[in-house]
Write the structure tokens for this entry.
Amino acid sequence: MTSPNHTNGNDINHSDTLNNQAASKKTSGMQITRIERSAGVLLSDHMGCEIITLRVCANEHDPNEEVAIFSIHKNLLANCSRRFAKMVKSNTNHSGLLYKIHDTCPAVFKLFTEYLYKQVVPGVTHNLTPVQQGSRLADLCQLYVFAEMFEMDHIFLNKIMDKIQDGLVMTGRVLPAMLVKNIYEHGEKTSLLRKFCVASTLYAITTPGLDDTSLKILLRASDDFFDEFTRYIVATVKHNPDPRVRGSFQENAVHADLTDSSEAGSASITATRGVHPCQFHVHPHGEDAEGSDSRYEVRGCYLLDGQ
């Protein structure tokens, strides 16, 4: 039996071996050193310490409507939108410490808080049931309308759009007519989500297996939709690409949000020719997302800028 302070020969040899291995790694230039980068802004400084409470309900006049309470860091909410900033600084939009968010269901607001803290938009995954996948797609569309309504950053809008497109490709679906109708009723007139609905509907009507009579009825139910639909036909009748499929951006992307998406965009899932990955993105003025070859050299998109 050896005392705790005694070291036998085998221990010494083992220790020497480890030291020699470490030394050889240093001399051969194989040692891996982790470099810690100091954060420019601390997380606590960005979020602050004050937490506010929000009551979220799609329709407060309906007693059967789901109601949920959320607690969020005040600064984090204020920094994501000037409308939220105005709301939390006003004394007229809340009772006590309870703020109210109308016309938004809790499931959609939950996706928003997920992005607020993680900068990741939850997408459609194979782990979800078909019913859950359909609900997630509908929630993502509502999230896009919500983000537009509160004038949020275009990067957020673009990430939502990518998840919608990838989710439709993965499930082999198109947006149902009732959802498209709701988007046209509540979305902004200039919304790229509305334009995507038009492109998706045209592709569905002209593609066997995706055509749905309810989509054709939609053409007669909404004058705005019909006008945009006919304009889109004139512009794309020769090509009619699948708008759900985002063309590969892997060659130029420095970084991409790959949480629920393919590394090469949704075009890697199918051989179908799709659209440019930024076609339904919102980019600040000056970014060239139009044209032909130059479209694949867009600067300022989160797919290329590592956001």
